[in-house]
């Protein structure tokens, strides 16, 4: 339960962040940092069990039909990443108050950063694949907003980051689906235990490939590396937290976690090692040619992530343990460097390493901390970076993917690390050596303290790396429980990896001493083209979208209708080819049906021949009424009632716009009329054939028989249609009504109509009629709502009746006194969505699946026992949503009419 309390605490902290910022300004960061520390302290109480291999956790059913649960599990690997999220997060939050300006939108930044920390926290704690996917996508979305908070310059980098990581999220979704289909469970522990079954599956390569793709996009591996340097337009706290310590490590976490399944598989190893080392070398070269410290650190992060991916690909226990330790070390020294670069930028007004020489004389503390972190990045003893880098060398040297793979991977890792050493020493040299070019002052300790804590920790943990052994050992055992993890120490004798460290330092020193010619050679290299290629593809897709959507931007009705009509014809043709002609086309069963069919045919011909909008609307209404009668004859009073109400509403809403239309339709050419007639005839033939084939069934389907049999015993309702909507398939109904709410919001956001329309005005008849009929309509609406579970009616139909009252009021020029359409509709839409969701969540709180109907019986004198179902509340939510949509539509179409009527009346 403690892990759940910790996650809830992170969420509460995010919600409270804007409130704290309003009261404390930028100093709210100190309170939030204390919150991060408190959550870490709470979580540490579970570490004895974690280290003993008894991971604590919680699990509740989430989607029982799919076997998905809300499971949180704190094992060793999750603990190590939680430590990064919370400790580095606390340091960043404590850094923010002195970095942020006194004025600004601090609440938004604090909320996004804290929410991101909570999402990362949930991601590494997730014990179910679906839950992991939800948190994975949440980090992508929050990252987009954090990068975009940089303003105009952040829009394009934020879009690139979102699209690239979003594509990775889709890959992860497909991987989850394939895993669930293969194993039959989305529980991560169960999936990892089914290693042999997954590997024996024919979809195993696809699962591995999709997981790799998802991880590569998140961890900025070639060819997706370009989004990370671009994201550095964000403020320094964002770069330090997301793009050095946490978000980019999500891909590393995913690959490490699923190494249990794929470690040792040749394809997995070759892809990870090859891509990782290419990324490590490319990132290091690009970092070495940079003079902007933040850009240098960005490419350095790309390079270090490449080394981590390659080490995971090696797959041995030594390599995996080294990757876990280096993940921790990298977060520590890279977050330190980002924070210090932010301080230097603030104090010196520049991040150009060529202008920052001699800092030691004027900013000795800042320079010392920068030097320590830079040397740790370079892998110099006795810092934590040295221990983790040497461990990586040990892992690469032990690669057994193909003959000689240890030598090849070791040599490439040394080459990338030598480049890292060179630019790491450049940071150190820039901080300590050279003449002092500016008159600067040391910043306050409050500004320096977070970076100092991380820098000192990186220095102390090198000699004291044994402190980390229990946690790294447990994390490694969680990935490969059948192996024996290594023991890390600062000195473990003369070995191949020590020789590799010496070669790295030697080559790195040569590169540093020859920095002038090396720099000139690097500057002649072509610039990275990843961003340009991505932008070209993105723009091409936007142009394609414009071409596809061009018909929707025309005034012509034909442009809108052409595609759906053609779709109906093609669908009918496909059905005819694939399924053949329906065996029994019983269009009309008796004389009544034939009369209705004749009336329907005459009405449709009338619509086609109508020359004025008024005649067309009237005849179209007649078509609807005839179909309503046909539904009644077919035994569907519910559908008939709904269609009748829709027809009435359509006619009333059409009255709002009829006066804007020409009295007679413009003449068209004979060719256009002929083409339209042929298309309409074919579409009508396809629709009629399909309808006849489906309605010609002599017996109910199996699903129909089930609902007819089970509706009343299980729900207490006799109206089978209503019980299907609110009891059996409530989630479908919630989805559909949510679409209605989205449509209403779209209407509210549309630009207003500039011109006012002339209304009918209350007059001597319509005004009194409105006052008489609107209350009656309201009572009828309530009556239909209350009887809906047993008789024709229900929330949807009752809301349509209520909408008729609104439309009638607008027609006669009644003007609401509660504000514009937005303020009138939003309460209904919000209340409807909240009520429907609350009904579903309440069922979950009682241990049932979402939206499970709940019933209770009360004794109400003198009526006796009265049953009450949560379905009634759910139906009320549907009513409010549909009514809100109608209020919106009538308000947008009829609002101007009311105003014009009042003006006319005056």
From TrEMBL:
It is found in: Cell membrane; Membrane. Residues 771-887 form the Na+/H+ antiporter MnhB subunit-related protein domain. Residues 126-401 form the NADH:quinone oxidoreductase/Mrp antiporter transmembrane domain. PANTHER family: NA(+)/H(+) ANTIPORTER SUBUNIT, NA(+)_H(+) ANTIPORTER SUBUNIT A. Residues 677-748 form the MrpA C-terminal/MbhE domain. Residues 599-663 form the MrpA C-terminal/MbhD domain. It is a multi-pass membrane protein. InterPro entries: CPA3_Na-H_Antiporter_A, MnhB, MrpA_C/MbhD, MrpA_C/MbhE, ND/Mrp_TM. It comes from Sphaerisporangium rubeum. Keywords: Cell membrane, Membrane, Transmembrane, Transmembrane helix, Transport. This is Multicomponent Na+:H+ antiporter subunit A. The chain crosses the membrane at residues 76-97, 109-127, 133-150, 162-184, 196-214, 226-248, 268-288, 295-314, 320-344, 365-387, 407-433, 445-468, 488-514, 560-579, 591-609, 614-633, 639-662, 674-694, 739-760, 772-789, 795-813, 825-851, 863-887. GO terms for cellular component: plasma membrane. It comes from the Bacteria.
């Amino acid at each position: 339960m403690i892990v759940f309390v910790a996650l809830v605490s992170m969420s509460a902290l995010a919600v409270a962040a804007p409130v704290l910022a309003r009261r404390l300004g930028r100093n709210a960061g100190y309170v939030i940092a204390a919150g991060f520390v408190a959550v870490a302290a709470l979580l540490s109480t579970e570490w004895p069990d974690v280290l003993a291999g008894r991971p604590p956790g919680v699990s509740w059913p989430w989607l029982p039909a799919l076997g998905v649960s809300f499971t949180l599990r704190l094992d060793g690997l999750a603990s190590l990443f939680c430590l990064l999220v919370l400790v580095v997060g606390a340091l960043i939050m404590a850094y923010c108050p002195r970095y942020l300006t006194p004025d600004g939108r601090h609440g938004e930044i604090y909320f996004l950063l804290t929410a991101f920390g909570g999402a990362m926290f949930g991601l590494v704690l997730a014990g179910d694949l679906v839950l992991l996917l939800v948190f994975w996508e949440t980090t992508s979305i929050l990252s987009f907003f954090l990068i975009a908070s940089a303003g105009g310059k952040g829009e394009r980098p934020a879009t690139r980051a979102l699209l690239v990581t979003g594509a990775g999220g889709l890959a992860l979704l497909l991987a989850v689906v394939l895993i669930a289909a293969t194993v039959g469970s989305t529980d991560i522990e169960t999936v990892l235990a089914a290693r042999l079954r997954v590997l024996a599956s024919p979809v195993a390569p696809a699962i591995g490939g999709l997981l790799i793709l998802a991880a590569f996009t998140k961890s900025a591996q070639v060819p997706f590396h370009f989004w990370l340097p671009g994201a550095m337009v964000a403020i320094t706290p964002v770069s330090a937290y997301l793009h050095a310590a946490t978000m980019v490590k999500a891909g590393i976490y995913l690959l490490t976690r699923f190494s249990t399944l794929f470690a040792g598989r040749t394809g997995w190893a070759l892809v990870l090692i090859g891509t990782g080392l290419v990324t490590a070398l490319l990132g290091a070269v690009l970092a070495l040619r940079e003079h902007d410290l933040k850009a240098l650190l960005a490419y350095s992060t790309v390079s270090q992530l490449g080394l981590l991916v390659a080490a995971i690909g090696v797959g041995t226990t030594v390599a995996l343990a080294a990757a876990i330790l280096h993940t921790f070390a990298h977060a520590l020294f890279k977050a330190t460097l980002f924070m210090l670069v932010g301080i230097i930028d603030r104090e010196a007004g520049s991040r150009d390493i060529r202008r920052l020489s001699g800092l030691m004389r004027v900013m000795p503390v800042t320079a010392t901390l920068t030097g320590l972190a830079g040397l740790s990045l370079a892998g110099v003893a006795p810092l934590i970076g040295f221990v983790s880098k040497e461990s990586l060398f040990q892992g690469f040297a032990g690669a057994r993917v193909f003959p000689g793979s240890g030598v090849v991977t070791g040599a490439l890792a040394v080459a990338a690390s030598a480049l890292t050493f060179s630019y790491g020493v450049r940071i150190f040299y820039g901080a300590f050596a050279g003449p002092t070019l500016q008159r600067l002052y040391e910043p306050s300790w409050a500004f320096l303290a977070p970076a100092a804590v991380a820098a000192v920790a990186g220095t102390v943990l090198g000699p004291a790396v044994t402190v980390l052994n229990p946690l790294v050992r447990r994390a490694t055992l969680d990935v490969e429980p059948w192996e024996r993890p290594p023991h890390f120490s600062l000195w473990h004798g003369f070995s191949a990896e020590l020789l590799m460290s010496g070669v790295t330092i030697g080559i790195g020193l040569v590169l540093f001493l020859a920095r002038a010619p090396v720099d000139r050679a690097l500057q002649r290299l072509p610039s990275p083209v990843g961003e340009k290629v991505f932008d070209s593809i993105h723009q091409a897709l936007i142009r394609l979208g414009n071409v596809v959507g061009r018909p929707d931007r025309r005034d012509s009705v034909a442009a809108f209708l052409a595609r759906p009509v053609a779709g109906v014809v093609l669908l009918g043709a496909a059905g005819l080819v694939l399924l053949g002609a329906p065996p029994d086309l019983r269009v009309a069963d008796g004389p009544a049906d034939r009369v209705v069919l004749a009336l329907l045919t005459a009405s449709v011909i009338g619509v086609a021949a109508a020359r004025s909008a008024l005649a067309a609307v009237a005849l179209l209404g007649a078509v609807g009424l005839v179909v309503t009668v046909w539904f009644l004859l077919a035994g569907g009073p519910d559908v008939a009632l709904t269609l009748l109400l829709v027809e009435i509403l359509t006619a009333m809403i059409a009255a709002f716009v009829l006066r804007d239309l020409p009295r007679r339709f413009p003449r068209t050419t004979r060719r256009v009329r002929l083409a339209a007639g042929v298309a309409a005839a074919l579409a009508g033939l396809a629709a009629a054939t399909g309808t006849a084939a489906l309605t010609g069934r002599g017996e109910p389907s199996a699903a129909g028989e089930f609902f007819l049999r089970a509706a009343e015993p299980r729900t207490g309702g006799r109206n089978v249609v209503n019980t299907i909507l609110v009891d059996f398939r409530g989630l479908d109904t919630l989805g559909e009504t949510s679409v209605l709410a989205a449509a209403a919001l779209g209407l509210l956001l549309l630009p207003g109509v500039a011109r006012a329309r002339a209304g009918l005005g209350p007059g001597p008849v319509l005004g009194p009629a409105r006052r008489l009929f609107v209350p009656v309509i309201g009572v009828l609406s309530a009556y239909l709502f209350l009887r809906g579970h047993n008789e024709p009616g229900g929330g949807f139909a009752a809301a349509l009746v209520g909408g008729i009252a609104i439309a009638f009021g607008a027609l006669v020029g009644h003007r609401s006194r509660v504000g514009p359409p937005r303020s009138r509709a939003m309460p209904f839409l919000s209340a409807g969505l909240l009520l429907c969701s609350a009904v579903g969540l309440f069922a979950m709180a009682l241990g049932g699946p979402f939206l499970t109907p709940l019933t209770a019986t009360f004794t109400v004198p003198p009526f006796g026992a009265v049953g009450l179902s949560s379905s009634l509340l759910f139906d009320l939510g549907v009513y409010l949503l549909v009514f809100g949509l109608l209020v919106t539509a009538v308000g947008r179409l009829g609002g101007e009419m009311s105003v014009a009527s009042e003006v006319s009346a005056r």
